[in-house]
Design goal:
This protein is an alpha/beta fold and 173 residues long. It has one domain (3-159): YbaK protein, CATH 3.90.960. It has helices spanning 3-16, 32-42, 74-81, 90-97, 142-148, and strands at residues 22-25, 47-56, 61-67, 85-87, 113-118, 126-129, 136-141, 156-159. A hairpin with a 4-residue loop joins β2 (47-56) and β3 (61-67). The longest helix has 14 residues, at 3-16. Residues 49-147 form the YbaK/aminoacyl-tRNA synthetase-associated domain. It comes from Pseudomonas indica. One of its GO terms (molecular function) is aminoacyl-tRNA deacylase activity. InterPro entries: YbaK/aa-tRNA-synt-asso_dom_sf (IPR036754), YbaK/aa-tRNA-synth-assoc-dom (IPR007214).
Length: 173
């Protein structure tokens, strides 16, 4: 899927489920320092997402959607997914989702890709994420995501991330 098609699918999902959003266009965001600068420049509210595309040892894939500073709890993910997960390669990410490495989009993927959604996101009023193109950011109210997630064709699993440790912003969304 192209980045334009992934963006269109995200906007259509949000519109169809009456989830308001704000979209801004900017330079490519491939790291958290740039994401923070964009957030400040445009007055975006909310928390940055971190989406990790996972390969399951038993076969299949999942997209983990969590917060930028969250650390993955691999044991919890294995129990939830029923198989040991690992971070998929950049080539797998691009081939199966259309996403650019360092900028995985959390929503709008093929039904066979499970979605693991971190409940900690719902503790915030807004989530910021790229709808595909790294030059775009969406500001979405988390209350709207709560309505949207159950209607997705993907298997949606809910997860609770580890408490962040020292806040290095080296990870990407």
């Amino acid at each position: 899927m192209s980045l334009a098609a992934l963006r269109a699918r995200n906007l259509a999902l949000l519109t169809e489920h009456r989830v308001p959003f704000r979209e801004v266009e900017h330079e490519a965001v491939l790291d958290y320092p740039t994401a923070h600068a964009v957030r400040q420049r445009f007055g975006l509210r909310g928390v940055e997402s971190k989406s990790l595309f996972l390969r399951l040892k038993s076969g299949g894939y999942a997209m983990l959607v969590t917060l930028e500073d969250a650390r993955a709890d691999w044991a919890q993910l294995k129990a939830l997914l029923g198989a040991r997960p690992s971070v998929a390669s950049d080539d797998e990410l691009t081939a199966l989702t259309g996403c650019v490495p360092q900028c995985a989009c959390p929503l709008g993927h093929a039904a066979g890709i499970a979605l693991v959604f971190d409940r900690a996101i719902l503790d915030h009023d807004y989530l910021l994420y790229s709808p595909g193109p790294p030059e775009r950011t969406l500001e979405v109210p988390t209350a709207g995501l709560s309505r949207l997630l159950p209607s997705l064709p993907n298997r949606v699993l809910y997860y609770r991330s580890c408490v962040p440790t020292i806040g290095a912003h080296a990870a990407i969304r």
